[in-house]
Amino acid sequence: MSATAGSTPIWGRAEQQDFRSRVRGCLLGGAIGDALGAGIEFDSLEAIRAAHGQEGVTGLVPAYGRRGAVTDDTQMTLFTVDGLIRAQVRRDTGAWHPPTDVHRAYLRWAATQRDWGPDERKDDDGWLAREEWLYAQRAPGRACLGGLADEVMGTLETPKNPGSKGCGAVMRSAPFGLLVGWEPQLVFQLAVECAAQTHGHPTGYLAAGAFAVICHAVARGEDLDTAVQKALAHLATRPDHEETTDALKRALGTVRQGMPTPARVESLGQGWTAEEALSIGVYCALVAEDVRHGLLLAVNHGGDSDSTGSLCGNLLGALHGETALPPDWLVELEGRATILQLADDFAMEMTQGPALHGPGGSAGGWLARYPRA
């Protein structure tokens, strides 16, 4: 299966099933990593060990009043998916500009951080914005909120927050990589353009592009090391790539230093900035014995544990599919039914989109779920 952004790929049944498993794995895996880190996000490694034992957290711990709670990382990732589906739906109208649709989705997320709950009068919001559990503030990033405070879309020419390279853009960018029918340079460009809507520092948006390309390669069945090399090749063509490139190279170099340890994770930084979160997430995925091992490594450090866990989970889920995810963590995951529904909708849109947009699709509620407006 292959295609460009402007064409419709042809999918066999086995390919559809494999793709759906990888989409589910990516979104659920990222949410699990997010939830594992949510309760220790602001703690030092010493504090984590003091509270949870020498091994640190070994499973879900309470955060925001429950076990399995997710943060703004998962919230924004889901709205990225929503925006990409809406972009595909709007292709039929001739209004083909995915950054605009993703930006509109991010504005719907920003509304969840201001409003008490869904506004049922807004039919054009679609179904995701009517999910009440998403109307919770989970330490949203200042750059994300500030960049979306008005309806003016940041671009690469006029980015929002030009000095910001926090991890708030890279942590929501895995869904761009799930556009497996697109060529990788288009995936990179779209992720970069959408990152600049809130994070205007080159490292802030180039890290998002690099992460999207890595997710794209593994979602297409390539190994993770090859995926990282592809990201490095794309970065090399961009101005001001050095910081992001160096971070990925540090991740690769740390793999060769020996058995993974929390100290080796912390040698890559704390994860608050885009390049550090990318480096830690990629490193932990590269050395993971399995999903459980990789995610625990990704969160047990002093720093932005939920974001590094989320990135690692996105990668491992896309790499191995949903059946590799620990079922005991999945059971307690906040919003699991919503995430599954969105993942399946995305997979269906990407594999069978044209059949959903006609009269039958409209009658079945697809265009009510993902309005063209």
Q: Quick summary of this structure?
A:
The protein is mainly alpha-helical. The protein has a single domain, classed as Orthogonal Bundle (ADP-ribosylglycohydrolase fold), CATH 1.10.4080.
Mean pLDDT: 95
Q: Which class of secondary structure composition applies to the elements?
A: mainly alpha
Strand content: under 5%
Q: What's the end-to-end separation, in Å?
A: 30 Å
CATH fold descriptor: ADP-ribosylglycohydrolase fold
Stretches where pLDDT is under 50 for at least 5 consecutive residues are none
CATH architectural grouping: Orthogonal Bundle
Number of self-contained structural domains: 1
Our Rg estimate from Cα atoms comes to: 19 Å
The total count of strands amounts to 2
Work out the helix count: 18
Major sheet attributes:
2 strands, antiparallel
**CATH secondary-structure class:** Mainly Alpha
Write the element-wise H/E pattern from the N-terminal end onward: HHEEHHHHHHHHHHHHHHHH
Q: What coarse outline follows from CA principal-axis ratios? A: globular
Side by side, the strands of the main sheet go 1-2
Helix content: 55-70%
What does this structure look like?
It is a single chain. This protein has 373 residues and is mostly helical. The chain has one domain: ADP-ribosylation/Crystallin J1 (ADP-ribosylglycohydrolase fold), CATH 1.10.4080. It is 58% helix and 1% strand. It has 18 helices and two strands. It has helices at residues 13-38, 45-52, 72-90, 98-112, 142-147, 174-177, 184-195, 202-219, 224-235, 242-255, 262-266, 274-287, 291-299, 305-320, 327-332, 336-357, 359-363, 366-369, and strands at 62-63, 66-67. The protein has a two-stranded antiparallel sheet with strand order 1-2. A hairpin with a 2-residue loop joins β1 and β2. α7 (184-195) packs antiparallel against α8. The mean pLDDT is 95.
